[in-house]
Amino acid sequence: MKKILCVFLMIMMLTLGFAACSPKSDSGGGISGGDGERVLTVADSSDPGTLDPWQAPSDGIHVYNETYQGLFNYEYFGSEIVGILGQGYEEVDGKTYRVKIYDNIFDTGGNQITASDVVWSYEKAIAAATWNNRVGVIDHIDIVDDYTMDFVYSVEIDREQFNDSMMIMVVDQETYESLGKDEFNAHPVATGPYYFGEYVTGSYYTLVKNEDYWKDPELRTVHEQQNVDVINFRIITDTAQVALALKSGDVDISKVDAANAPDFYDYRTETTTDGYYVQVSPGNACRGLVFNCSADSVLQDQNLRYAVCYAIDNQALIDATEGGNGEVEYTFGGNQYGGFQEAMVEEAKTNIYSYDLGKSEEYLKAAGYEKGELKLRLICGSFNERYAVALQAQLLQAGINAEVLSYDAALYEAYTVDSTQWDINLFIRGKSAGTLPAFWGHHVNGTNYEYGSANFIFDPAMEELYRKSLENDATDEDVLMVHDYITDKAYFYGLFNGVEYYVGQEGVTNVYYTDFLGIEGGSCTFTDDFFE
After folding, report:
1. 3-class DSSP state for residue 148?
2. Where in the chain is the domain with CATH 3.10.105.10?
3. Per CATH, which fold does 283-499 belong to?
4. What whole-number distance in Å separates Cα of residue 333 and Cα of residue 128?
5. What is the pTM (predicted TM-score) of this model?
6. How far is CA 428 from the centre of its chain?
7. Which of 135, 158, 160 has the alpha carbon at shortest distance from 81?
8. Domain 4-235+513-520 is in which class?
């Protein structure tokens, strides 16, 4: 029998602000903790809002990985998936995967999670329609026994689609239904290494270590570490205020934007300011270009696509828009993605990634244009407008006129699938799976678009190469062949990846984060005396 009474008792404790627990409220926002407890304060840029386990993806769900759990997850960018609730899986056939969960999973209310809870949670996610990119290909799930299920997909899936489908939050059905949606979303009962504590909208929220976490320490993944006892997330939306909070010591760890990073780190000399720890890494989001290859655009002419590409200086774009803080791309996606190879760097010395105004002019003439005659429509979301303007200036130097058409997010997304609206699409996008084939799937996969790929064509040769790069036995050569094909055709073009800065007080030794779910405080590491 499910322990509903335990759930209600726990929620009462949370509602009363931990009256029965040792942590005490901190006047600065959060829980200060008892004697000897390790309390970490992290700045977060957004408010969680609803704590619905199946809410739409947003910045505010940073808290989720340490409270809610799915079946499998990536430990690091570009890694293979590892088991969280899931103990293992096997491919039965192209459309069926058998998944086994641990037989000792308990949530913070003392309720055991079984296969029926998994199936019910997936049904809720499917009904919510907020995670269709992960569950849209699931036809149904058959229960084999209390801890085993067969996931049956509507089509044959590749490994990235399977991986993504394993990342849906799972909770106890009876508890959710007994508490009701509103109460559950206010005080979630879940299986993670931390449970949700205090929450003041627009100010802070707190995670508290789950002392009865169900998984043996030797089996835990990086997402399941409990290196601190209390994590206070202070909601600070202004980037300058984040830097000030770090300087004053009010915050232990935070992501810092490029404008404020020089207060803590000199990227030219790669030196850190005394008193701080700084972790620098390229973001997974790629700023890149999709070229409209349909009959509705002049860029159906490959010569013109070449003319555009040879007119672009990626490093100059970084200097103009990011103050030099960025990583040049030599392929569509970036060198931090799995599958990136040095051969791509070598090829970039002579292919479309080599800035060459002379070649740009040659290809303009080959297409029948003199300098100043070609006019293009450059579409972007308003969040990318300054990058589009910088690109516009570079194209103008090559005698190519590009009109910048900047739209709000909703209208921009609508226009990207309308071939009559644009010639070049400037976008920013990443892929948490961390491999080039996974990233390419956003754009080259004909199954994602009714008209073919993101550039409005269907190219069977490209599709075949791409599918081969997704197979479990795919080699570096398979990945390189896709890169070579889409580069030779100039279908897509990678510009650069931004650099991310994670800053901690002295004594932080590693900041663990995912690009999608932010900093996971329980998985960060510290010197032995950091909390003294």
Report:
1. strand
2. 283-499
3. Dipeptide-binding Protein; domain 3 (3.10.105)
4. 31
5. 0.78
6. 12
7. 160
8. alpha beta
